[in-house]
Amino acid sequence: MSTTNTCAKCNLNPEDWTSEKLKLCSKCRTVYYCNKECQNNHWPIHKPMCKPHDPQQTWAIQLLDKEEFTKLGTEEESARFRHIRIPNTHPIFRTGEICPIVARCGIPLLIYSPVLHGRLSPERDAQLENQPAVYLRIEPHDAFAPFQWQIQNPGTVILARRDHRPLTREAAEMMWKWASKIIHAAGFGTYDGWGPLEGLVNPATFQMFSRDYYERQTEKGRLGFDSFYHPL
User: Residue ranges of the MYND-type domain (predicted)?
Assistant: First the structure.
């Protein structure tokens, strides 16, 4: 559900353009548009979440493990992220773990692994690899995930905001890329470390990376990255 009265496509705010009046999506009544053109252009992005608002449910993201992703038959990494709506009683809000480097930057992102949290038997352990999930769980002081996340594959996980605000797959993808960037900054990737890790994990650098990432995806013609909202 939109938490700001701006056009979901072009970010128009009627306070700046008094001749325009935003209109709610008639189907879900959770997002605003300034005109039909914006609504039609935004439909491919809005469609997965176009359902009436339910205060007892939260829009979350299912992040697929290696096996589930392979079944899709695509190499498009964004396909690993799926919109799902979960009840507010979901275990993620009780036993899910905070993603520290993202939380430090102002996004209260929770991650929940049915395997690591004892809800699913790791029978397919070799195929439960989920590198993006492990990256999101790294700690800001050393860029390593907790030991359990390193020695046991987490399988398909759920991502959700602790404040129950909706999470989009574009934002989830960007946060994973941010985590990967931090790992490289710590000197664990293909580049030497290029800055003090603790100093790099802050809202300012996160927003700079986020804006740059959204702009680069837009230049590639990818849908969903044409507007960047602060805060996410």
Answer: 7-50
Is 175 contained in some domain? yes
d(CA 224, CA 22): 20
What span, in angstroms and rounded, lies between the C-alpha atoms of 151 and 206? 28
Secondary structure class of 133 (helix, strand, coil): helix
| Residues whose CB falls within 8 Å of the CB of residue 212, separated by 6 or more in sequence, listed in order | none
Distance of CA 6 to the CA centre of its chain: 20
Confidence of residue 185 (pLDDT cuts 50, 70, 90): confident
Distance CA 133, CA 97 (A): 11
This prediction's pTM: 0.86
Domain that holds residue 21: 1-53
Q: Residues near 43 by Cβ (< 8 Å), separated by ≥ 6?
A: none
What is the spatial distance between Cα 42 and Cα 7, in angstroms, rounded to a whole number?
A: 10
Residues 74, 4 share a domain = no
SS3 content of the chain, % helix, strand, coil (to 5): 35, 15, 50
pLDDT tens digits, residue range 16-33? Answer: 555 567 888 888 888 888
pLDDT at 190 over 70: no
Residue 178 CA, distance from chain mean position: 11
Domain count, the chain: 2
